[in-house]
From TrEMBL, chain B:
One of its GO terms (molecular function) is transmembrane transporter activity. One of its GO terms (cellular component) is plasma membrane. It comes from Paenibacillus pasadenensis. Belongs to the binding-protein-dependent transport system permease family. LivHM subfamily. Keywords: Amino-acid transport, Cell membrane, Membrane, Transmembrane, Transmembrane helix, Transport. GO terms for biological process: amino acid transport. NCBIfam families: urea_trans_UrtB. It comes from the Bacteria. This is Urea ABC transporter, permease protein UrtB.
Length: 368, 301, 429
């Protein structure tokens, strides 16, 4: 762990190469996949954005949130509200009509414009995170207490949204949209474009997260993870950093939620609940916390596995998922990324035994 | 006036049920720091053990004995959950001490497997448990105030479990060993305590308590593969609100949540009441970040 | 220091390699089904319905229910009934001379998952039709997918009405085949003061809105209205409120597990069916097994079918179901409606001579069938069924005794257009 904090320059070429390869694969994916699989992949990419955000909070700062489903859901609702208003074409959305509303509630107004919805989809999760974080981190609530607090946040949000059916669509959530910015959501071209948008946002998230991790801010985050009190004694105020990363992480979840709605066509309180919130943490844990690529891959692989298992064994797929969680936590405490690193090192050692490593390769590293 | 007394009794009764489902968690989570997400499924194991006991009585024993099955089923549910807890500890949890968040993930997996196992063995629909005849009806205090025997029985059961746990932890050698290991593992090991055995036993006892909770819940609630999910969050809230590591804190936590819940639900609606209770929990933790009864410690972090 | 640097660099290389390999794997996995999925003209895939689901030796049909999660307690049995119907049809030679091949998917009690799996069934497996759903939320989540891909969904559960999608056939009751007649019957026979209790989701809220309008029109009185969160398990406070309100009737729209807690605790509070009439619309034979017949004895429910419904078709249906899944299993209204759905679809396909969605819909119009519940007929206009309404009372053996029936199948009216008092409920869509 402490090794990761040491920085000795970066092999920019190597890194750029991997990024380029990943980008190329994402770019080329539509050539190989059916519409349905591409849609699934796009959804997973949206999840990966949330996973990277959660990793910044958990893997790098050591704060475990079991409430990120809420932020994901808030972003999703913002986008869904916009799409629903578009689909209703000036009339009241259907669920308001049968719930007895006669007029659009005031807080739905800003969602009539796409820009406003996108902005609020990021601003609302950020504001909720800031509000909660402001009190919680200053009161030095941490560890498991913070985790349980975020679960309370989940219960509050889900119960509220479910209960206010006239304003939020209740358990059904918000579904049944037609188009986005004048393009039909059902059209293959729109789906392809949305896929590329999601892949682009994921790459941008990656670059942003890397910048954060590399910055002085990121160093303080890791210092907080490894010894909060030492950081405080050194004159930093950890709560500000914690607040900052919590807000960033919540915003990324909100963005992921918005993209999710575009691909799946529904948002409902079930996406904000305890189970999705825990699943998000599982992606990061199994991918490898503290490594950005691990978090993203965890989201992709775990959701891929979930789809594959549930399609092949619809009656008993929970056995496989459960076993997967147990086995990875026990045998791969650092996740798949940790496994890959170990494997690579072992391979290198064998190779090196045969031939000495040339000096120019020892340039340094960068943790991604 | 009757309504006031009835609601007071309801509040206490809800608190006692919360305490019962949280008691096992107060041991596994409070004492051992294992975030046991499978706690709800251990409750489910207890409920199904009760169902099995009832089935056996119906099939193999004379009908006149039937109403006595429930006493045996308390022991059976404890034993079933105890054994599963022991197995879990020996094969899984022991690798995860000192990694509480990892224990969360692994036990989540265990929970999924247990749910599916219940579904595969007993079928997906709920099963029914017939309450013993001696728990039917209630104690009439006044005309409008009837206290159901089942609720009174659960209250008594909780009291017994709590007393037993207090005696075990503070009055027996095994309990003293347990406290020693939980407070300072290395020192305890140096003094010749087998920490492995203490760990196994503690976790198994915590699981067994969850089993008893499951047995009691068959009297008032559903019995199905997913019932664990209804109770798990509440159980964690109780333990955390009370203060991790102190049994008496858990009692306060249960009373706090149970009473406010009943009050808010009566004044407002069930949904709004639930929201208000959880808002209170969030606010309360801001005021007392370590819960009602904090462990005194000189160590930082 | 130098040493560390090198080590760490390799870590990073390892991660990069992992990234590339895994991404390739994910993509590979995604592309795996490509040969089967990629039809001749990918752009036209939604409209390519002419021979949907028909392959050389069989016809694929989708079954999409929650097999895990909280809704599995109800939905697994419906899946069982649908599988049984498919087996029966196959044993008699299939449809259009081809065997039916069921493709089962798990909706996992999660609405977005229902949407995902529906899309998978339609666009990957190219099933001819899908039987599935239970909650209104799952149906609402699947509806846009079926309309977009022009698929066909058979939805087997009573629901809150106010909907008629051209891509859905509703084989459960709509409000005028269950709730509205039940309320009228209660007002005539059991009293005027009604307390509405439901779970906090769409069906109970919409149903209660309808009931309130009906109470106002038919001289009833509202004693109270209460909603509890899904999965709520403590009803002592609610029961206190009911006691204080002193209603003649509790109209119960609680869902699933909550019914178990409510009825057990109602009995503990010393209130029996003789003291207070309750009528439930989501408690059927299977729920009775989970609650206990001793707890429910004397309480009422409104459905279109009971295991005790006396028709020759029902006799064979119940016998076959028990023979296949065990003597302790029971049949119930949604189970029967799921079974009907498969037979109705098969009959429509036979009549149309094809599995094409438009042709099947056309053939299904006014189609009649002798179901276990008696004669049913598809209403061409709304794609709902004509169904007989029945009110039943729970007996000590866990079965229902019919206390009232409409006598003949009632025409479905999902928007309640034929009721004057319902005109203000919805602006219609």
């Amino acid at each position: 762990m402490t090794q990761w904090m040491i920085k000795t320059g970066a092999s920019r070429y190597g890194l750029a190469m991997w990024y380029f390869l990943a980008a190329a694969l994402l770019l080329a994916a539509p050539l190989f996949t059916s519409d349905f699989r591409l849609n699934l992949l796009a959804k997973f990419l949206a999840f990966a954005i949330a996973a990277v955000g959660l990793d910044l909070l958990w893997g790098y700062t050591g704060i475990l949130s079991l409430g990120h489903g809420v932020f994901f859901g808030l972003g999703g609702y913002a986008m869904a509200m916009h799409l629903k208003l578009q689909a209703s074409g000036g009339r009241l959305p259907d669920f308001m009509d049968w719930s007895g509303l006669t007029k659009l509630p005031w807080f739905w107004m800003p969602f009539q414009s796409f820009g406003g919805a996108v902005l609020l989809g990021m601003a609302i999760p950020a504001a909720v995170a800031l509000f909660l974080g402001f009190f919680t981190f200053r009161n030095r609530i941490r560890g498991v207490y913070f985790t349980i607090l975020t679960q309370a946040l989940v219960i509050i949000s889900v119960t509220l949204i479910t209960g206010q059916q006239a304003f939020t669509g209740g358990t059904n959530g918000i579904t049944g949209y037609g188009q986005i910015l004048g393009h039909s959501l059902a059209a293959p071209e729109t789906k392809l474009a949305l896929y590329y948008v999601t892949a682009g946002v994921l790459l941008a998230t990656f670059v942003l997260a890397r910048i954060v991790v590399k910055s002085r801010f990121g160093k303080v985050l890791r210092a907080i993870r490894d010894g909060e009190n030492r950081v405080r004694f050194l004159g930093y105020d950890p709560s500000r950093y914690q607040m900052g990363v919590f807000v960033l992480s919540a915003t990324l979840s909100g963005i992921a939620g918005m993209l999710f709605v575009l691909h799946v066509g529904i948002i409902s309180p079930s996406m904000m609940g305890i189970v999705p919130s825990i699943e998000m943490v599982l992606w990061v844990a199994i991918g490898g916390r503290g490594t950005l690529i691990g978090a993203a891959l965890g989201a992709l692989l775990l959701n891929g596995a979930k789809s594959a298992f549930s399609e092949s064994y619809p009656d008993i797929w929970l056995f496989f998922m459960g076993a997967l969680f147990i086995v990875t936590t026990v045998f791969l405490p650092r996740g798949i990324a940790g496994l890959a690193v170990d494997g690579w090192r072992k391979a290198r050692r064998i190779v090196r035994r045969r031939k000495e490593v040339p000096e120019h390769e020892r340039k340094g590293y960068s943790a991604v | 006036m009757d309504v006031f007394w009835l609601q007071l009794f309801n509040g206490i009764s809800v608190s006692s049920i919360l305490l019962l489902i949280a008691l096992g968690l107060a041991v596994t989570f409070g004492q051992m720091n294992v975030i046991n997400m499978a706690h709800g499924e251990l409750i489910m194991v207890g409920a199904y053990a009760t169902y099995m006991t009832q089935k056996l009585f119906q099939s193999y024993l004379p009908a006149s004995w039937f109403s006595q099955y429930f006493l045996l089923s308390i022991a059976a549910s404890f034993a079933a959950a105890f054994l599963i807890g022991l197995l879990l500890e020996k094969t899984l949890i022991r690798f995860l001490y000192g990694r509480p968040l990892d224990s969360l993930l692994a036990t989540w997996g265990v929970g999924l497997v247990l749910q599916q196992l219940a579904r595969s063995i007993f079928g997906a629909p709920n099963v029914g448990v017939k309450s013993p005849s001696w728990l039917e009806g209630g104690l009439s205090v006044t005309q409008g105030l009837v206290l159901p025997y089942k609720r009174l029985f659960i209250l008594a059961l909780v009291a017994v479990c709590l007393l037993a746990m207090f005696l075990y932890i503070y009055r027996t050698t095994a309990g003293r060993r347990m406290r020693a290991v939980m407070q300072n593992r290395d020192m305890a090991a140096c003094l010749g305590i087998s920490t492995r055995r203490v760990d196994s036993l503690t976790f198994a006892i915590g699981s067994g308590l969850a089993g008893i909770a499951g047995c009691a819940l068959t009297l008032i609630g559903p019995i199905g593969p997913t019932i664990g999910t209804y109770y798990i969050v509440d159980a964690f809230m109780v333990v955390v609100l009370g203060g991790v590591g102190k049994l008496v804190g858990t009692v306060f936590g249960a009373l706090g949540i149970g009473m406010t819940n009943t009050l808010f639900e009566y004044w407002t609606t069930a949904s709004l009441g639930k929201v208000l209770v959880f808002l209170c929990i969030v606010a309360f933790l801001q005021w007392k970040p370590k819960g009602f009864v904090a462990m005194r410690t000189r160590s930082l972090d | 220091m130098r040493q560390t640097g090198t080590k760490i660099k390799k870590r990073h290389m390892g991660k990069g390699l992992l990234a590339a390999v895994s991404l390739a794997l994910v993509l590979g996995g995604c592309g795996q089904n490509e040969p089967a999925a990629g039809s001749a003209s990918p752009a036209a895939s939604p409209a390519a319905g002419a021979s949907s689901g028909e392959s050389g030796d069989g016809i694929k049909v989708g079954i999409l229910h929650s097999l895990s999660g909280t809704m599995a307690i109800s939905e697994v049995s419906v899946k069982d009934a649908e599988m049984m119907a498919i087996d029966e049809i196959n044993a008699k030679g299939g449809v259009l001379g081809k065997k039916l091949i069921p493709v089962v998917e798990d909706g996992a009690s999660d609405w977005p998952t229902f949407a995902e799996k529906a899309r998978k069934l339609l666009s990957e497996d190219k099933v001819a039709t899908v039987f599935g759903g239970w909650t209104s939320a799952s149906r609402k989540a699947m509806l846009p997918v079926f309309e977009e891909l022009n698929g066909l969904l058979w939805y087997p559960v009573q629901y809150e009405g106010l909907e008629s999608s051209p891509n859905i056939f509703y084989t459960g009751a709509t409000t005028n085949q269950q709730i509205v007649p039940a309320v009228s019957w209660l007002l005539e026979n059991r009293g005027k003061k009604m307390y509405l209790l439901g779970s906090d989701y769409v069906f109970p809220r919409t149903a209660n809105k309808i009931i309130k309008a009906q109470l106002a029109a038919e001289g009833g009185e509202l004693a109270g209205e209460e909603y509890t969160p899904l999965g709520h398990t403590d009803y002592t406070t609610i029961i206190s409120k009911i006691k204080a309100a002193k209603p003649d009737i509790v109209f119960n729209t609680l869902n699933g597990d909550s019914n178990v807690a409510f009825f057990k605790q109602l009995k503990d509070a010393g209130i029996s069916a003789a003291d207070l009439t309750t009528l439930s619309v989501s408690v059927a034979e299977e729920e009775i097994r989970g609650i206990g017949a001793d707890v429910l004895e004397g309480h009422l429910a409104a459905w279109n079918y009971y295991q005790t419904t006396d028709t020759p078709e029902n006799k064979t249906f119940v016998e076959a179901y028990k023979a296949k899944y065990g003597a302790d299993r029971v049949t119930a209204d949604p189970i029967e409606a799921g079974y009907d759905a498969v037979y109705l679809w098969a009959a429509a396909v036979e009549k149309a001579g094809s599995t094409d969605v438009a042709a099947v819909k056309e053939a299904a119009k006014e189609l009649e069938w002798d179901a276990p519940e008696g004669k049913v007929k598809i209403d061409g206009e709304t794609q709902h069924l004509y169904k007989t309404v029945r009110i039943g009372e729970v007996q000590a053996d866990g079965q229902f005794k019919e206390v009232w029936s409409s006598g003949e199948p009632v025409k479905p009216d999902p928007y309640l257009k034929t009721y004057a008092w319902a005109s203000g409920l919805s602006s219609g869509s």
